[in-house]
Amino acid sequence: MSKLAYQYVVLRCVPRVDREEFVNVGVVVYCQATDYLDVAWHVDRERLRAFDPRLDLDQVCEALEFVEGVCAGDERGGAAAQAPLTQRFGFLKAPRSTVIQPGPVHGGVTTDPARQLQHLVEKLVS
Fold first, then answer.
1. Which Pfam families match (predicted)?
2. I need a labelling partner for 112 at 20 to 30 A (CA). Which of 17, 20, 61, 106 fits?
3. 95: Cβ contacts below 8 Å, ≥ 6 apart
4. What was the pLDDT predicted at 110?
5. CA angle 118, 121, 126 (to 5 degrees)
6. CA 55/CA 14 separation, integer angstroms
7. Separation of alpha carbons 78 and 75, rounded Å
8. Rounded to an integer, what distance in angstroms lies between the CA atom of residue 9 and that of residue 27?
């Protein structure tokens, strides 16, 4: 089995940008060698409510479903979903000042990008 280079970003929910507090809610993994781009996410509603009871948790989930659409290349991701994978990952990793923000880009090697994604979600989100 050959080792494949991959990159990933952790998606953070930032309920109040002014406080700079966040909760990890997802991970996006990109492996150029296998044309793999996917996201896995989990929203802990109770934990996020503790940060800000006024947070619209349905909006948080909708934003994460948008990320799913961008990764899958379907209509949920709008125009961004039509770009090549490299550009889609670039769009998803770009800093933004919204409730869902990507953390820094990290990299590694794996033999199975999908299994690596599940491992990262278990380790960093769940």
1. DUF3037
2. 61
3. 101, 102
4. 97
5. 125
6. 10
7. 5
8. 6
Mean pLDDT over residues 8-27, rounded? 92
Q: Which amino acid type is present at position 121?
A: V
The closest of 28, 49, 26, 31 to 93, measured between CA atoms, is 28
Report the alpha-carbon distance of residue 84 to residue 98 in Å, rounded.
Answer: 24
- Whether 28 contacts 39, CB under 8 Å: yes
Is residue 78 left, alpha or beta, with left meaning phi > 0 and alpha meaning psi from -120 to 50?
left
> Tell me, what's the pLDDT at 36?
98
- The structural domains of the chain, with segments of one domain joined by +, span 4-124
Instruction: Give me 45's structure tokens.
Output: 């509603």
